[in-house]
Amino acid sequence: MAEAHGVLVIGEVSDEHLHNTTREVLAAGRALADQAGTTLAVGLAGTSLAAAASEALHAGADHVYTVERPALLDGAIELHLAALAAICRSVAPAMILLGRTAQGRELGPRLACRLGVGLLQDCLRVELDTASGHLMATRPVYGGNVLARVRCMATPQVAALRPKAYAPLTPDATRQGTVTPVSVALETSKARVTIVRQARQDSAGVKLEDASIVVSGGRGLGGPEPFRDLEELAGMLGAALGASRAAVDAGWVPGNWQVGLTGKTITPDLYITVGISGANQHMAGCSGAKVIVAINKDAEANIFREARYGVVGDWQAVLPAFMEAIRGLK
Ligand SMILES: Cc1cc2nc3c(=O)[nH]c(=O)nc-3n(C[C@H](O)[C@H](O)[C@H](O)COP(=O)(O)OP(=O)(O)OC[C@H]3O[C@@H](n4cnc5c(N)ncnc54)[C@H](O)[C@@H]3O)c2cc1C
Fold it and tell me: Which residue's C-alpha comes closest to atom 48 of ligand 1?
């Protein structure tokens, strides 16, 4: 690689538009690039990238590098990796950021390995370590019990950011930048993984990650049926439904409802939890909520340490009264 310079964001494209998490990562990258007095680029691999490329410039990038090929249509990871690694070699960035999305989790370790460096996973914050000029990140360790500040020693420094850790910048349609295609030989015949089928699980109503109100249930609900009550409550509030991992693991609700370290990260204005103990791994996904309201029968439950408002009691008694009060307000 040429001498490393600048910050490169590994972008994601969804339905021909820039993925929301990429906008968030661009906000982090913009701040980092400004701090280092350098440029911010984004790498995009896929098909039909024109719209996403302009959106990336509007969202803070100075330069866009693209590999646009039909072979990248189905999202096969090895071909994406080859395309994005080619962009990295061409750009020779000092720092690389990506989102810890489903694709980012597959891509990040592979890309770092291919570049011969380590990967900082699940970062909440990235900044410049002024002493070394390298990237410094804040990330949870020991299941979210401790926040560690870690510095990369090698170059490029690669960090995967937790979704919702940063708010995207307000798009600025007047921002200009360059869009450069990168050429790479994609050896489709050598791909060891082929995508056989892709299924999209659409969630009805408000999307959990984007909802301003979320109602979540946990093991304390005792089974799948009480989630119908939560569904009714969510309907009254225009809220999305979530769950703890215990409820998901029990098979009471689908996996894409899970909030937490190994589930979704949410940042709603209001988060109502029912029968959730508030384990650190759960809180890792909802600590960005502005107001947490907890219903739990155990006054010592950890959730009450984080909740602004709490009701100590059996949800079967509390929830109907709570819903009646909301009906009254309406
Ligand atoms: C590596 C790792 C990753 C993990 N990732 C996640 C994750 O992403 N998300 C996640 O949620 N968890 C995750 N977990 C699991 C986590 O540690 C907890 O086990 C889980 O969050 C507990 O779910 P819960 O609060 O529903 O159940 P419990 O901890 O069993 O809590 C149930 C609560 O319900 C209350 N309750 C019981 N009956 C009633 C009633 N009638 N009325 C009112 N309250 C009642 C109880 O007092 C209790 O506080 C992870 C764990 C590990 C090790």
Answer: 277
